[in-house]
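User: quick one, fold this
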Amino acid sequence: MATDVIVPTLGESITEATLGQWLKQPGEAVKADEPIASLETDKVAVEVNAPTAGVLAEHVASEGDTVEVGAVIARIQEGASAATAATPAVEDRTAVGKAEAAQPPEPAAAPAGQVTPVGYGNHGEAEEGGTGGQTLSPSVRRAVLEHGVDPSKIKGTGKDGRVTKDDVLLAAKTQPVAKAPAAAAAPAPSVSAPVSSGRKEERVRMSRLRQTVAKRLKEAQNTAAMLTTFNDVDMSEVIAARAKYKDLFEKKHGVRLGFMGFFVKAACQALRDIPAVNASIEGDDIVYHDYADISVAVSAPNGLVVPVIRDAQDMSVATIEKTIGDFGKRAKDGTLKMDEMKGGTFTISNGGVFGSLMSTPIINPPQSAVLGLHRIDERPVVRNGQVVIRPMMYLALSYDHRLIDGREAVTFLVALKNAIEDPTRLLIDL
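Assistant:
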């Protein structure tokens, strides 16, 4: 008996998705509720689980196809085993393959400049002994081909032990490069044969997430009257507090004490004092929020995602750090939920973790402002008439000038700066 695998409900107002990756191939055994495919929506990747145990009989949709909610994308043969799941057509092809194997094929030369890693066929798909039957995503396959590493020797850190692009890049740095199998000598080219210059191009379809990001950012530029105001902040006191209490903090709360907890807490106080920065425009109305739902940008395998810390104004620094840490872990595993990405009244983006010195972030509509954090550099500053070295960070507030005046933007940044340079203010609500 065959059971259809259908596209699950993806969330409010989302009717379709892109089939990003098949995690199971026809003929492979699957367990009930085991992930067999990954779908890309406008906001996040969603895994499709097997409705029953059995053997994956066929793929009805291909990677890259747009599929609607409720559409059949695969079928599972219940009660079958992997050894007996092959269709007659597959058995016939297997027999033909055995017959052809009896006669050695004529050696064919590999195209100039092409390297086939160990464990991979012409299409970059895993062969027996390659990755233990694991299907690699297109980005991982490209990384394997580019760096010439053997995927069977890479220990995956992704969900269910899957190999990620970061795993491949790390292996390329720490492991010897896998040598390609020797190919038969190609016939000598004629004098008129073109010589390869080694220049390559690759065309990759934009993911649904990247398409949505591009569309929304361009809409923000076209709609909002965006302006960015800068300030800098002395991180000495926060760094000292973190160094003094980080061990006790981690022991008590089970999470590391970072800088984001301080900035989110300081931002909540500044948003309360400057409510326009936390507001939004709806038609001809201004909507003010008496709560702070802070969107925080975290890194995911397919790019940055922006989950929301709900009611951050009521949270302690410890609770904020726990929430951000959970978001980061689940973003890497691809298990963030749609509802966790919706809403948000203000965004904080920390480009400093990637080494950014300064930037002009783009607001995320319908929000009216976004705070950009940057790397910490030791720079000379004047304190009490003396030039001293301090760990300084640039802050950037991009805002919709239709709603937020320059005075309000500067006042917000100054309030944030004062709280970070004197964290005691966060405790006594100044």
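User: anything notable?
Assistant: The radius of gyration is 27 Å.
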